[in-house]
Write a structure and sequence with these properties.
The complex is a heterodimer of chains A (703) and B (208). Chain A is 32% helix and 18% strand. The longest helix of chain A has 16 residues. Chain A has 703 residues and is α/β, with parallel strands linked by helices. Chain B is α+β, with helices and mostly antiparallel strands. Chain B folds into two domains: 69 residues, Ubiquitin-like (UB roll), CATH 3.10.20.740; 108 residues, Alpha-Beta Plaits. Chain B is built from five helices and ten strands, in the order E-E-H-E-E-E-H-H-E-E-H-E-E-H-E. In chain B, strand 3 and strand 4 form a beta hairpin. The termini of chain B are far apart. Classes of the chains: A alpha/beta (703), B alpha+beta (208). At the A-B interface, strand 3, helix 1, helix 8 and helix 25 of A face loops of B.
């Protein structure tokens, strides 16, 4: 008899409601959930048809220990005792990656183990690789690093500006909600992207700048807004600071000069700026309400050596126009992973404790009291720095949970060289992926469908994840593995192991809610009764918060930050590597592809890396659509298939970073970093492109 | 405002169909999705409203005083509509897989006592298995249009349309290309909405 279990989609940050229909222990049809407030009964191909990876025969079913250079099956006791012993031996040179795919509860227990037992703040997760510049910039300017609004605001907006993101590929249900606003309510759309994306079909303005010139684009828009007197003087006077210095910096160039840097038409830049600042009211806007504009962005802004500057530039636009803190306005970095918001909320970042609380006496006291121990107060290392500092011996042991750096770090040959120098590497995941293959110990974790917990989506909505099937093999939930490990380490250290004794995920959530004020009113029980709720939700009778910054900013006044346009990237095209490589994602594959390559239908849709190339660049190399090609950078090469399209500009290639047939874009990308957020420059490096030479037929003789 | 549904006073909110369903009466409504606008294509929700035979999904409840869902006349006409609908489906090729609503049409035929073999006006016979995720079996299509509305009004993708007119009307992805070559993103909302097995998930394991 089939059973239907309501849960949350494990793929992107939209956080769609799914109903898993289970028969004989297997997930069959996945239904949408019209009651879910984020997805309103919609799903995309991955949520609907992409969860069968949980039943894939490649799933890890037992712990593995490397003996004589071979990973051999072991018992949980053998594996966890060894991990406990070796981690303790490396105290002081230890780092950990948490997983934005796991639950809040998993994340909370993991950072607790790292801080309380390993005595370090060296914990981070993939936010470093996606939205760390957004978080840095928003913390500086507003005092909160989270998306300020809700998906409902996209539908209530009169204008949407989407920059450096491709929602139809990466956040498909948000794209549907945006299309609904545009089609049914007449909401205007501005797209800023070096690549023509599908949403451009509905755009009023499509700004296609030269890659790497985002600061010039947004500074140019700011100049146009100031010139036209469309700035919100009352908002700036009442709510902001730093205006004069910023305005003087903006006035150093004209709209024409900014447009020239970005290779845009000044009139188009001006028109887009005016539309954003003062859009005509959408259909059905309540009388007397000011038409709102939303700023929505993705990794096109963040994954640059000037990623933080790009985010400052776009945030300045929200401040100068007062497009914040009202229905239909706000700022949204679209979060990539299902729980990247929650993993940060739960404290898996090196800069702060759970709830973004700093390492000062007042903030740390409740944690030390609850956990009955002194906690480290030094800033920890960021994920990218941990990898870069292995060769120097600063990091000698790592605990990597639900993350595959050997597919996701830039310049993979370099990253592998570093990780191989570790004394001790533990990887905990569903599959024996590239990083697990070089680990000393591999621990089998169970999937989202085999555990209880919560995910927090891109609009700060905390939603329940529910167990639908029994754990595969001996796999266990991350929180369960980490707490077991925590008890073993505690015993060896002679400290109270009850800090890692939990009745279950609901009890872990309760501990987190006691220590994180903005989650204080939430519990599994309440989420079960009321459905997903948006934080801040400080008390049990608080309804949750649709948008932030209504009356003030967490830091007090919103702060303008002047930023200047630099060289487009650290590495620019030259004679040997004449093209710009831009990386991103496609609808069918999830990030590196560890999950989606194990869903037959998704692999059938796309089974070779599409290398998108402009028709002129294809013609000059004698390439036709579908030809096998090789792309090279100074760091590596990849094989793919030419996808000839004028969606990319002349001189540019676009390649999704999924690994297919042993090729992956991150063998080519550049391991250079934004100085503030330490995010790699995934979006821009120099490459060459050529037709793949035909393989010699077997048995053919050279003539 | 209230409306009497089979003699019981019911709040007159939304459409007549909403009121009938709120009254706990299980009226067929093969082309109406809970969350989407009414299409009014299938005419299987016929009721007698103040003496007139109307499609309940397409008339606001407000302003109607009494509704009879079970009069001899409306039952006969509704049964005929269901028989015409059933005639569009090729018997024996329903398959076993289907979305969550796949049994809706056959449950309605059975409940209303429709003779499914009375008419045979089968629509097309094309089978589109190009998508790795679902198949379209035209011989089970009753042209209710729910897939079209799910694609357009829910997801705002517009990959599926109704082409041609009258007896030649067909559901089709785009300009006559197979689903996999169309603008379809395989979100599956059409499969979830289909009240027959015309759009059905592909059977068998999709992993490995």
């Amino acid at each position: 008899m089939a059973e239907s279990i309501a849960s949350t989609c494990p793929y992107c940050g939209v956080g769609c409601g799914i109903r898993l229909n289970v028969e004989d222990g297997r997930i069959g049809w996945v239904d949408d959930d019209p009651a879910n407030r984020s997805s309103l009964g919609m799903l995309c191909v991955k949520g609907r048809f992409g969860t069968s990876f949980v039943h894939h025969p490649d799933r890890l079913t037992t712990p593995l220990i490397r003996r004589h250079d071979v990973l051999e099956e072991a018992t949980w006791d053998e594996a966890l005792d060894l991990v406990a012993e070796r981690f303790l031996a490396h105290r002081g040179h230890f780092g950990s990656f948490a997983s934005a795919k796991a639950t809040n509860e998993d994340a909370f227990v993991q950072q607790k183990l790292v801080r309380l037992l390993m005595g370090t703040n060296n914990i981070d997760h993939c936010t470093r690789l996606c939205h760390s510049p957004s978080v840095e910039a928003m913390l500086t300017q507003l005092g909160s690093g989270a998306t300020s609004n809700a998906y409902a605001d996209y539908e209530d907006a009169s204008c949407l500006l989407i920059a450096g993101c491709d929602p139809s590929s990466n956040h498909p249900v948000i794209a549907s909600r945006m299309r609904r606003a545009i089609d049914d309510r007449g909401t205007a759309l501005i797209v800023v992207n070096p690549k023509r994306i599908e949403m451009c079909d509905r755009a009023t303005h499509f700004l296609q700048p030269r890659p790497g010139t985002d600061v010039a684009v947004f500074n140019g828009m700011a100049r146009a807004i100031l010139d036209a007197g469309l700035d919100d003087e009352a908002f700036v006077a009442a709510r902001c600071e730093g205006y004069d210095v910023w305005r003087d910096a903006i006035l150093e160039r004209t709209v024409e000069e900014y447009a020239a840097i970005a290779a845009l038409e000044p009139e188009e830049l001006r028109a887009a700026a005016h539309l954003f600042a003062a859009p005509p009211p959408r259909r059905g806007l309540p009388p007397g309400e000011r038409p709102g504009s939303c700023l929505v962005w993705g990794m096109g802004l963040t994954q640059h050596t000037q990623g933080t500057a790009n985010c400052h530039a776009i945030l300045n636009l929200a401040l100068i126009t007062g497009q914040l803190g009202r229905p239909g306005s706000g700022v949204s970095p679209l979060r990539g992973q299902n729980n990247v918001q929650g993993c940060g909320d739960a404290g898996c970042i090196p800069d702060s404790l759970p709830g973004y609380q700093h390492y000062d006496d007042a903030a740390i006291a409740p944690f030390e009291e609850a956990w009955q121990a002194a906690l480290p107060r030094e800033q920890g290392m960021r994920a990218t720095d941990m990898v870069e500092r292995i060769p120097a011996g600063d990091i000698r042991a790592m605990y990597i949970v639900g993350e595959n750096p050997l597919l996701n770090e830039p310049n993979l040959h370099h990253a592998e060289e570093a990780l191989r120098q570790l004394d001790f590497l533990v990887v905990q995941d569903l599959f024996l992926h590239e990083t697990a293959e070089i680990a000393d110990i591999v621990l089998p974790a169970c999937s989202f469908a085999e555990r209880e917990g919560t995910f927090t989506n891109s609009e700060r909505r905390v939603q329940r994840v529910r167990q639908a099937i029994a754990p595969v093999g001996q796999s266990r939930a991350d929180w369960d593995i980490v707490s077991d490990l925590g008890r073993r380490i505690s015993r060896r250290m002679g400290v109270d192991e009850r800090q890692f004794t939990y009745a279950g995920p609901a009890a872990i959530f309760d501990e987190m809610a006691r220590l994180v004020p903005f989650l204080g009113g939430l519990s599994h029980d309440r989420l079960d009764r009321e459905g997903g709720l948006q934080w801040p939700c400080p008390t049990p009778d608080h309804p949750g918060t649709r948008f932030l910054h209504a009356d003030s900013f967490p830091r007090g006044r919103g702060c303008f930050v002047p930023v200047a346009q630099h060289e487009i990237a650290e590495e620019v095209p030259d004679e040997e590597y004449p093209l710009i490589l831009n990386t991103g994602r496609i609808l069918e594959h999830w990030h590196g592809g560890t999950l989606t390559r194990r869903v037959a239908g998704l692999l059938e849709r796309v089974d070779v890396i599409p290398v998108m190339v402009h028709p002129d660049d294809a013609a000059s190399r004698g390439l036709a659509d579908g030809d096998a090609v090789v792309v090279r950078s100074r760091r590596g090469r990849l094989s793919g298939e030419a996808a000839v399209s004028d969606a990319v500009q002349r001189g540019n290639l676009f390649v999704p970073f999924v690994k297919l047939q042993d090729s992956a874009a991150n063998f080519l990308t550049n391991n250079v970093y934004d100085p503030t957020a330490r995010i790699p420059e995934y979006k821009l490096c120099a490459v060459s492109l050529e037709k793949k030479r035909g393989r010699r037929r077997v048995g053919a003789t050279a003539s | 405002m209230s409306v009497a549904i089979d003699g019981r006073a019911t709040s007159a909110e939304g459409s007549l169909l909403d009121a009938v369903l709120a009254a706990g009466i299980d009226l067929p409504h093969l082309c109406k999705d809970d969350n989407l606008p009414a299409i009014g294509a299938c005419r299987t929700c016929l009721v007698e409203a103040d003496g007139r035979i109307v499609a309940a999904c397409s008339l606001p409840a407000e302003g109607v005083s009494s509704v009879d869902t079970q009069s001899e006349r409306v039952r006969r006409i509704r049964r005929s509509v269901l028989e015409l609908t059933a005639g569009m489906q090729e018997a024996g090729s329903e398959g076993t897989a289907g979305g969550p609503l796949a049994a809706a049409a056959h449950l309605a035929y059975a409940r209303e006592g429709a003779d499914v073999a009375r008419f045979a006006t089968a629509t097309g016979s094309q089978i589109d298995v190009s998508s790795p995720f679902f198949a379209f079996h035209e011989d089970q299509c009753i042209l209710c249009g729910r897939c079209v509305v799910a694609c357009q009004a829910l997801q705002h993708i517009g990959a599926i349309g109704l082409a041609r007119e009258g007896g030649a009307t067909r559901v089709t992805p785009g300009a006559g290309v197979p689903f996999n070559d169309s603008t379809c993103t395989a979100c599956g909302s059409c499969v979830a909405a289909c009240p027959t097995t015309a759009l059905r998930p592909k059977e068998g394991p999709t992993d490995g």
